[in-house]
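Lab notebook: predicted structure, single chain.

Context: the supervisor wants predicted structures on file for every construct in the current expression panel, including those that have not yet been purified. This is the next one on the list. No modifications to the sequence; it matches the entry in the shared construct table.
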Amino acid sequence: MAKTGISIVVSNAVFGSVPNVDANSMLIVAGASAVATGDIAFTLDTPFLLRSLEDLDTLDITVVNNADIYREVAGFFAPKSGINNSGTVLWLVGVATFVDASVLLTAVRATVVSGFQYRPRNILISQIDTFAARPVEPSVIQAAIDLLYTEGFSTVAILGDCIRGDVTATAAEDLEVLLSPMVGLLVVSKTVATRASVGAVGGFMASLSVGTSIGDASLSAFAADMYFTDQSALDTYVNTHCAGVTLAVYNDYGTNQYLFARTRPPKNGLWLNDGATCVDKTTALSSLEATRTIASMVDALRTFLTPYLNNKIPVNKDGDIQSTYKQVVLDNARIKVIQSYIDDGDISDAVITITAKDDDMVTTRTWEVALSVLPAPTLRWVDGYVFYVQSL
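Prediction complete. Output recorded below exactly as produced.
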């Protein structure tokens, strides 16, 4: 006979995880060309969301019509042996010539249309490295990042640059003065006679915990072949292999806070240096892992505090925040803002304080919040001594 009825099967559901904002990146490539032949027209100055190298096919971006874009995107999604960033959010922005602050600001703001959780944390800028088209100065990018911070976009940047001068000469007299925290200046490429490989280095950085130095010797070697992007004459590359320079040159680049590759005997291959930013090396924000950690904690603190806006706050007879209420807030902040960073080894500890402005919550309706972070420092240098003795 015919069967009638209802059959219901219940099984476990697997929910998709929220994207990790710390790994989200934006890649801006100068010298790009618009493409109208793909499934989606690739227009300049517009962010396009990628999750793999294959996503370039929908834009019909190839190594022929946009060689620099293809190389940088390929470097991001496969930055080094053993790491594949497939599935990681990458916003691609092609620009014709000069990357200025307005392009960066407009592109980053546009990403939140797809959801604020997709906003970029790492900004990678591949510049046209010819003498006629001078690269953007780090201070210009820094000004844009400062403005983005006020709007809720906590980012750091890797800026590709071309050094004017022979790498075999005294580097200190050729290097530009660096100004900017939250910006790292990259001066090496994984390909001969091309601009700095910001995609590859940025992809490597995005694959690491925010508090991990990209120069951590416990990591694998970044590459076997990398080249300094220096020029001995107008638009003529020297193409110096990073393994072929002296320790003195390495030290000059390191002293000037550049991002570059170097040997690490007795290990094989080439290693990124300690991940410096464009600021004095004695400051708290002189390394990429420090700036990335701060940027991530800024986001966590902002996310935690936003729900309190326009809520009624209990006060005592003096008009200050009620102490028991404040302690509950601080305890929650410890759990939601601080503890995960300690557990991941990104920081050693942190303390949050909350006070009413002028100790008067009734009149000011303003909280003054301070987040003090104790870093988890990485070892930068070892002074070793070996000698014979008559007795121990």
